[in-house]
Amino acid sequence: MGTLTSRTESRADVQAAPSAAATASPLISFRGVRQVFRLSGRGSEDGSSDSRELVALQDVNVDIHAGQFVALVGASGCGKTTMLNMLAGLVEPTHGEVVLDGRSPRLPNMDIGYMFARDALLPWRSARRNVELPLETRGWGRGRRQERAREMLELVGLKGRESQYRLQLSQGMRQRVALARTLASDPSLLLMDEPFAALDARTKLTLQAEFLRIWEHNQDGDRRKTVIFVTHDLQEAVLLADRVIVMLPHPGRIAEDRVIDLPRPRAEILGELQFTEEFQNITHGLFERLEGAIGGRGPGTAN
């Protein structure tokens, strides 16, 4: 492999970078977002209820442009999934504003694909019928649904498995079906919540490469897809994304926002890329930033 170059930029540099994306209006904006969840506990002896507040997000400000692959990385409780749910229209911010394509996210949004850590396949449906599900909600005819589902299952390497049910598939195969289902309706925004976390290392690398191959192949013109990818794994974030946002918990906030300048397409070189000096330097730098931020943080949320 030839020499790779790496570049990391501060959060301010990312938003000011003189690229084609930076000159356009962002597809996604979080502006002064604060999210508070009220937790109810047992009643006290005097009959009053015991409630406290959990600050899931605090002062989150970030812009994401169309076509970017952005990874949100951090420990449990830092608000990564909450941010995805806000974009999906499932959660409204307590304070601040979330803007998606010029408006507040609302349900339903047929231009969003949402994939979870667990496959969430319907056990009474075959692989093909699971992939057809989002197409049914969009009103596709039966023949068109079936053809599209077969195409997508072949795309993720499951040709010949169309009639098998969840219990007949390995965990890796189930995630392939879930990926095919997420991509079937050709959404322009992909929300991915630790989609490969439950897999063994070998299967995980295979599916990472498979997904990246599909995404990189669809990066021209109107087919360009935006990806918001949640993970606990800093190495996975650097390996896949063009930009990594490191988040800290209690309350959830952004510690670092960096551009990852590694070569694309990467799908065919993931196994080699993770052992290069450039990859190791970027990952180590982000890890040090994460550790330093944790060590220097102040008190968390107040009850």
UniProtKB/TrEMBL annotation:
Keywords: ATP-binding, Nucleotide-binding, Transport
Molecular-function GO term, any one: ATP binding
Organism: Thermobifida halotolerans
InterPro entries per record: AAA+_ATPase, ABC_transporter-like_ATP-bd, ABC_transporter-like_CS, ABC_transporter_ATP-bind, P-loop_NTPase
Domain ABC transporter intervals: 28-274
SMART domains: AAA
Protein name: ABC transporter ATP-binding protein
